[in-house]
Amino acid sequence: MLTRRLSAALLAGAIAAPVSALPITAQAAEYVIDTEGQHAFIEWRINHLGFSWLYGRFNDFEGSFEYEDGAIEDASVEVTIDMASLDSNHAERDKHLREADFFHVKEYPEATFKSTGIESTDDGFVITGDLTMRGVTKEIEIEAEKIGEGEDPWGGYRAGFHGTTTLTLKDFGIDYDLGPAATTAEVTLSVEGVRQ
Fold it and tell me: Which of 9, 83, 85, 196 can pair with 60 through a Cys bridge, CB separation 3.0 to 4.6 Å?
């Protein structure tokens, strides 16, 4: 009888061992970017004729990211931008930027970004992903850093990140001549997400 019990225990242990030996992977938490509370920004600047910087932003966008502390390379992010919400603090200029010379908003009302990979660096990490704008999809890289995470005063949990990238306008079909210094635009993203 004792032999049978020992055999049964050993068999059960042999079956359970491979299962317990499997690595336990943490499920990345989903965060919604806090655009409702205006704790997220997509801003850009472009050189004007080599004389000055022209600044602007997109006021309306939405997105989410999946992230787990200590596993940044497993994170992901998706963002959709309302291109009509472009705002350079000048109504006539904004009207022109929305037309076919630039973003052609009537034909392409949205731009989207979806990450395809994230790699850690000495200074933070690089997000690689597909940006679709003006009907063109191009792979871009965003140099990013984590700003912080933790509980907020309202009982929620937040994580925030900052990133920058440079876009070549002709890559997206924009070849309006603003001078040789204005062939690229610098984009800054500051996002704060609320864990769901």
Answer: 85
pTM comes to 0.84
Helix/strand/coil for 20 = helix
Is the CB of residue 59 less than 8 Å from the CB of residue 47?
A: no
Q: Quote the longest CA-to-CA distance of the chain.
A: 93
pLDDT computed for residue 37 by the predictor: 85
Exposed, middle or buried, 139 (CB in 10 Å: 0-12/13-18/19+)? exposed
Structure tokens at 38: 């205006």
Which residue, among 67, 26, 34, 32, has the nearest Cα to 196 in the 3D structure?
Answer: 32
Q: How far apart are CA 193 and CA 188, in angstroms?
A: 16
Please give the share of the chain, as a percent, with pLDDT higher than 70.
87
